[in-house]
Protein 1
Amino acid sequence: MPLGINASVLMKNIMMESGTARYPKSEKNTLDSKPSQLVYHALMVTVTYPFTDLSRGRRSSLKPAGSSLVRSRLTQPTSPENEGASPFLYEQKTTCDADEHANAMFGWNQACDQMTPGAFTGKVVEMWIEEMQIFRATANRAVCQSGHFWKNYRVIGVPLEMSSTGLLSRQAITLDSLFTFQSETGFSLSTPEEFDAIAIAIPDSLLENLMVERDLGNFRRLMANTPNALNVLRPDPDKLVELRHYLASILDPRDDHQILRHNPQKQQAIRSMTLEHLLETLRSAQPAPMRTRSFKAHSHLVNEAIELVLSDPSAPPTIKALCDRLKVSQRMLHYSFLDTVGVAPLQYLRNRRLNGVRRDLNRTPSQAIKIHETAARWGFTHLPRFAAEYRALFDELPSSSLKKQSPSIHGSLS
């Protein structure tokens, strides 16, 4: 279906006919807080299934494979009455751990570290329409996540709410910006507490063709996979608000997405309107300015420090030794961390290592792992101090993490 006014009219008519027309009254369109349920062909069943079934069980097959794997998953029949279903999927999940939050989205091979203290809660709402993935992710704690996703895809993210500045590839993310990255380069994204965003994963070829058709060729080249590529954009405020509202409305858990699953016409209307809003917003975008003149240099120094420490986490250097290796003063290192991630280097690097311990405890069978050995692999040799620091960050002791191994993602699928 071609983009343009016809898609807009069609979308309006379809939504009115189905009784699902709803536009958010404000920019913040909160996720449904009711307990998650599995919705399938008018059957309502509460389901809790192991996290490993959702992530590691499918992870080996998720090495970027492109649209063929997407289509095979979306069209796979689950019951006789589901035969011939169109390539559409809608899922909701709640998470209680940063690592399972990272694995809640199909096709993403990433790690996620919790960086601020307290119990973690997150939500993910995910929709697939043909080859396009649209999802909304919310987390109450600051996190640092990195990894890869679908081969030959690009992600464009739209912040809905954030308590402070985020960071992507040495560029600051603010509430009035978009952020984007490409699958071949991977990504490293730091987000603050109470971060709520919607993102679209779209095939490079589709986006490039549409940009050429819309005379956005110069802008497309700026977003290419080069050292000077744009990662953070500043669009027209009105266009950004329209895009936010539209994306929030199509992912609204209160709508009946089971009906949408069996209506290809509605799916195509949503797909067309999503692309229409996205392209108009990109057309209005400009490169986001650096927060400060020294911000890029500071973020580069922070990345170097993180790489050095995590390259051998069992023997973390002191701050003085780290500065000697980086050939900078302790004052410069301290200020660079505060400027980019908002936390002193000692605390930040310790939290990254604590997340490594937690990930190992979650992923290794309890009978095959010992807490003190796992802690030592991540540079924690004083067990009482380690246990106190672990509890301060994750609101539980390491032994508790081991006992509740293989936590559950509560999800609904339609």
Protein 2
Amino acid sequence: MKLEAKTIDLSQLVETYTSDLYAWALYKVSDVELAKDLVQDTFLAAAEKWAAFQGNSTPKTWLFSILNYKIIDVYRSMLNQPTGLTKMDIGMKTLVLLITMTLFTFWGHAQTTRRANEVMGLETGMKAPLFEAVDVDNKLFELSEALESGPVVIIFYRGSWCPVCNRHLATIQDSLKLITDRGVSVVAISPEKPELLEKMADKTGAKFSLLYDKGYEIANAYDVTFMPKKAELLIYNTMLGAKLKASPLEDTRQLPIPATYIIDKDGTIVWRQFDPDYKKRSSIREIIDNLP
């Protein structure tokens, strides 16, 4: 959902972006309570600065910039104390109550109920979350180490059960040399365990790294995780053998949007292909044309 500047109020910002901001804050500080405080502080700062917001960027980008500055301040000060409310006037206290009530709702449900068309993904210009994950041979891949050698193309895919994913990764493999000859490495990430990564490698002939996203940590950090509808689960499980859990209490029924990110050597996202329609994937031409 795209929100136009100056046509929304704070409650709409909170409702739309809380889960995204919280996922990013939690990834950066690894502390649930501190992440909550950072998100709350971000909205409070946005409320104070809203009149000066010119709309030169999207509200999401603007909110993330505020949050990132607050995360930097945390690391600078090394203090984990939430912002005090004693000096706020009645209007700001009401605002805090609104934010807090909304946050509690979203923290319990947002990450496990969002549909594909509600997920927005990290945008270009943002710093790519660093991660580490095991590959098909149970060897550890570290993004920070890979970036020391050059840019990295990151491809999220749903699983070895997905025919579109199979074709996409096979196409990437067919033209892999056109990418690697530019000093760029390629990794593909899914929530499947190493034994299924091996199955995917056999199907596609992939010689690039296939990584296991344990607990959806990487997909969550890049904001590409969504919950399929019941009808979709039925099709995936019965026709494609996905073996996704049917219970809403099981996190293992989540999937990543099949997005592609290009990360520059300095860790910045310089290009992305992101579409809730799982049939629409990045092409070799698009990737090559956008390599740094």
Protein 3
Amino acid sequence: MTDIANNHTLIDFSKPDGCPALTVNDKFIFVGSCFSDEMAKRLTDDCMDTIVNPFGTIYNPVSILDCLQWCLSDKQFGTNDVLEFAGIYFTPYHSTIFDSCNSNKLLESTNNSLEAYRSQMRQSSVFLITYGTAVVWEYNGRIMANCHKIPQTNFTRGMLTAQEITQATQDIVSLIRQYNPNAKIIFTISPVRHKNPDLLTNSYSKALLKVGLTEALSACDGHCLMYFPSFEIVIDQLRDYAHYTDDGVHLTDHAADYIYDVLLQTCFESDSIDTIHHIRRLLKIIGHRTTEHNQAYYDNMEKALKELQTLQSKCGTNRIMQLINEVENKIIAKIL
């Protein structure tokens, strides 16, 4: 683990007994704030199967629940789900990446994405849910997942209560368990600050998220369920603007790497951690470039291929299979 936290007060955290350890063979889905994207990227880089934010980045618990309800149902989006402002069409459930100047194209892209993710999500064994804020923005009486660059004067700003957050969290747990009773569900609060409208509101918002989550998780049976302290690691352990980028809001890569290391060390099986380190070593070998007729390079590729094929029995992820094909193609190219 990186030494970023030297001389800092360490968060006393360990995985609860009721939640089985994560493994390299789990299928992960991340839903929530941009911090979800950061953690998912690192798992993907370590060759694990991940899905991240099928509706784009979402920040509040109610919109996250909406996303999961759509993805874990058989419904499709229709004209009643389409909103419009200044010639741009969008839904209350998606981020701006789906916005369109044509309502039919919007419905086509959102439904195609829904179908593409639906079967994968139902097969996921780990759900990592990241709450970003309790602040919500209502447009035409609906809580929006994203403001779609519409002027704020068109919205009514609100704040979810702790009770509403508790209810949304319990509904998320119940919904996931309908499809996979043994899915491992991990909740966390994003350490990313929200300056809109101001940092005082951000502090209140994060406190509400923590209260609502704590109440919800304490009321559940604890089976395959846990809270991971991303927010606390940054605020109480690292607690230094050196761990934020120049905007003072988002984490540096080094800080995100540290949180990811804590997740690995505290929540993954030891054998899976060893496998991840093995994969990282092979990725470095595979990533090397070579000049033509460099026999040592191709010898290393042959060794890497054999190790990957052995790893496939332990870690049969899509990315491992892609790497095997990639290395085989490099060896074939040398023969040709």
Protein 4
Amino acid sequence: MKKYEFTGECALFRFDESRYYTLYRIRALRDIPRHGVKAGDLGGWILDESNLSQFDDAWVADEAKVFENAIVFGNAIVKDNAEVYWYSLIFGNAKVYGNAEIVGRVRIYGNSEVYENARVRDYAQIFGNAKVHGSAIIHNAAQIYDNAEIFGNANVYYCSRVCGNTEIASGELCDREPPITISIKYEFVEKKILSFGGNFKYVYRIKALRDIPRYGVKAGDLGGWIEGDWNLSHEGDAWVKDEAMVKDDALVTDDALVQGHALIAQHAIVSNTAIIRGEVAVSGYARIFNNATIDGLVEIYGSAQIYGKVIISIHHDIAAWIYGKCEIFGNARILTDVRIHGNVKIYDYATISGRGAEIMGEVQLHENAYYNQSIWQRLSAGDITGKCSEYDDLKNYSIKRS
């Protein structure tokens, strides 16, 4: 069930002298007790559904605005007159409120709070129980965590780390590196160059600084590759293992695992206890979360959402492709090299096992649906709850329900 809808009310928001955005007011479709929201309550303003997850308790309230490619998810809240934009991510139990401004590729998570007139920019990260308020500015690649508090007119920038119970109320802090604390889960130990289209970027091998028993990781074990610590959260047991790689603005967080030769790129998010392994590639604005497990040779991109207890396991020499705005959730199973796209919904205990089939458009497969059509068959319409066992031609199906 969706968490919110658009009310039809819109407002033209002037971003700067040359850019304007039309933002849309939201309304709750269910109660969200942790934020005191009741079904029917009006919320804040977003550009589209990509800015606020429909599947958890995250909320945008009051006159707050979230737009461009920013995302609020998990149990986070943005409220009052706060603004979050560009590629910023607000998640976990984080709170952004007052007149706070969050812009850039910022990560705010854990139980952290940013409020009053604070500004957080660039690649900065605020997590743990940290608080940033007053007229403080946090920018570049600065990190504020543990129980640290930055307020007043403080300016923290470059690669500064502020942790422990530190309080900074004024002045500038640049490039201060404190001792490693329990809040820092990994460090970089090796780098390599990725070349693409005449350009290049560095990615870094990580090494665990603490045990992660859930995944058999010991302090000192080498992990996979990430472009920067905006790709892998320091809280929780999330880990990147083997030769897996996370780059661009992608994020692996909570207790998720990415391993094998998997690639998480662009703006994709893997969260909760999701597991990605094998040759899986996730990109675009795709989200993998809850207890979903994806293994083998799979390409996932666009705005695809895969969650619940879904299992996708493809061990053929041809990849499965999942893209567009499709949703796969519940206890669904995808077991072969199918192509799924459009607004398809596959859920409950539905199973797809037909090699080379294509499922697209507005198709819904649910309950105990079982689709096993052979290669080159296309399913572009229908609400299927049983076994799909007959077809007229490549485009028009007669559905037998069992």
